[in-house]
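Researcher: Last one for today. Full complex below.
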Amino acid sequence: MLFKQQALLRQKLFVLGSLAIGSLLYLVARVGSLDRLQPICHIESRLAPPGLPGQIPLRTLQYKRGLLHELRKGNASREQVRLHNLVQQLPRAIIIGVRKGGTRALLEMLNLHPAVVKASQEIHFFDNGQNYARGMDWYREKMPFSYPHQITIEKSPAYFITEEVPERIFKMNSSIKLLIIVREPITRAVSDYTQVLEGKERKNKTYHKFEKLAIDANTCEVNTKYKAVRTSIYTKHLERWLKYFPVEQFHIVDGDRLITDPLPELQLVERFLNLPSRISQYNLYFNATRGFYCLRFNIVFSKCLAGSKGRTHPEVDPAVVAKLRRFFHPFNQKFYQITGRTFSWP
Ligand code: A3P
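Model: Here's the assembly. Have a good evening.
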């Protein structure tokens, strides 16, 4: 009898203890997110719909990682959506490229901002004829739930290099903000090559060396038919976009600096998007094991990008690198001139 009572008491103590620890952990998590819950002051925004108050309600921020996350998983009822005044908005800014420039890192880091909601998947609406034919409602339905004051951002790096895309985006919204993240062109090309190589290896296929693809064996000149080279001729692609959008509608992000020192780059983007500065050093920490900055949402939640980001690149023959440098040099100069952003690319 006594033994039974003791067991019951122990069981009760265990339940109480678990409850206490659970509550404590919950409190710690909430306190950790407090610094992200300051009411956001005025967004002097060309982006904010006219007539709506310029403040993001506090609850918006509280729900950012709670309810919105649930909704993304499809767990919310229509009633919740209606009650919280949630909407699926077309993007007011798009990361149009460049592939392997750091597009995922940029999107994830911008998503740290309480007024930004990311479309998690690459939607490929404007570059894929079949998707485009499905119409704007299909595109909107691919967007995450958000509050009317938040801005939705999507990224599909194929947009930058696909012929039809500038006109199609222009038709949707001629004043949309366009983000392009670039890296030193040869590094980007090698990164591109490395991704394709990994795909081939996964399928047990062989693949050429980078040098063989980048240099035309007949002419010994740079092979401009090789996609990884063509994509890195940033100015060629940008010129097509400039037929539709003024240069002020683009913001160029330095992808090399986003790797080594992300905050200043993110602050420039905040300014470009007319958002108050909310991403801080607290949200970014260097993870020595990954060799990259990772994201901290609060004291409990943090994450690094997937292992497919940050691959080891193969060594490239210095003679080929030298040839590529000479090749890219004039295009790079033109790119600096057009965008007004200079990089120390060799
Ligand atoms: P590498 O794999 O060549 O290193 P994208 O998302 O456009 O495909 O770009 C991938 C690149 O993002 C990676 O190229 C990596 O260098 C870069 N990157 C930038 N910031 C990163 C971060 N915080 N974590 C991981 N990769 C990051």
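The radius of gyration is 24 Å. The pocket of adenosine-3'-5'-diphosphate is lined by residues 99-105, 157, 191, 258-259, 292-293, 305, 309-311 (CB under 6 Å).
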